[in-house]
From TrEMBL:
The keyword Lipid biosynthesis does not apply. It comes from the Bacteria. This is Transcriptional regulator, DeoR family. It comes from Kroppenstedtia eburnea. SUPFAM superfamilies: NagB/RpiA/CoA transferase-like (SSF100950), Winged helix' DNA-binding domain (SSF46785).
Length: 261
């Protein structure tokens, strides 16, 4: 097993039980204590865990996922503007994939009345919004539904996503950082998002300006995997310039008038 694969499995174990010991990991992976301690040190250097005497725990920052209801009233106007801007990239006949999230829920509402679309989603509330549209085919991804985010994740979701190819993915995130890329608090959701990215020809990241420069627990992808970041006018000019210098297209949603900058 490669070191990176082992470290990802360590993080997955931590997400399930919030604490691991060196002895437990040594037995689990069949490697030396020095190897495990080096893995833990490297993960701590990346701020993905906190080392303790004889093991490691989840870091306090970034491991807790706010509930959907807690998030839906935060940056509400900015999220609506981002959704309006994102809808302009959707054409009749497109097959699109909507990640679960508050901003993608706004986008689903924007799509009502949009002709000839196929919409795939892992959020049952998004599927419910769009299920009344006669000119739209709605495909609901199954899986384990996360209480906090209302997202279907896990092996059933991943298996279904691997059988699909879509034109455009509209992805949500908790953190967007130049060095650490796109992140989310839960490794299971991160894995499902990764499978979404692999199924799409184009990836649109919908993230309001409060997410910029922030890092959550689980890595989703690097910025190179994203074709277009759609955000609001609150983004810091320096951060925007750093993103564009890396080759990332940044679309700024203008609140209320349906235009983009």
């Amino acid at each position: 097993m490669f070191a990176e694969e082992r470290k990802q499995q360590i993080l997955a174990l931590l997400s399930r039980q919030e604490r691991v010991t060196v002895q437990e990991l040594t037995s689990h992976f069949g490697v030396s204590e020095s190897t495990i301690r080096r893995d833990l040190q490297e993960l701590e250097d990346e701020r993905l865990l906190e080392r303790t005497h004889g093991g490691a725990i989840l870091p306090e920052k970034g491991k807790t996922e706010p509930s959907y209801r807690e998030k839906e009233s935060v940056q509400e106007f900015e999220k609506a503007a981002i959704a309006e801007a994102a809808a302009q990239f959707i054409l009749p006949g497109d097959t699109i994939l909507l990640d679960a999230g508050t901003t993608t829920t706004h986008l689903a509402k924007e799509l009502c009345g949009h002709p000839r679309l196929t919409v795939v989603t892992n959020a049952y509330h998004i599927a419910s919004i769009l299920s009344v549209e006669r000119e739209m085919d709605v495909i609901l991804i199954g899986g384990m539904v996360k209480f906090n985010t209302l997202a279907a994740v896990g092996p059933y979701a991943e298996s279904m996503l691997k059988q699909l190819n879509v034109d455009k993915l509209f992805l949500g995130a908790n953190g967007v950082d130049l060095a650490r890329g796109v992140t989310t608090p839960d490794p299971l959701e991160a894995k499902t998002k990764q499978d979404m990215i692999r199924s799409a020809r184009e990836v649109f990241l919908l993230a309001d300006s409060s997410k910029m420069g922030r890092t959550a627990f689980a890595h989703v992808c690097s910025l190179e995997a994203v074709d277009n970041l759609i955000t609001d006018r609150g983004i810091d000019d320096r951060i925007k310039e750093e993103f564009t210098d890396r080759g990332l297209k940044v679309t700024i949603a203008a609140e209320g008038d349906g235009s983009t900058v």
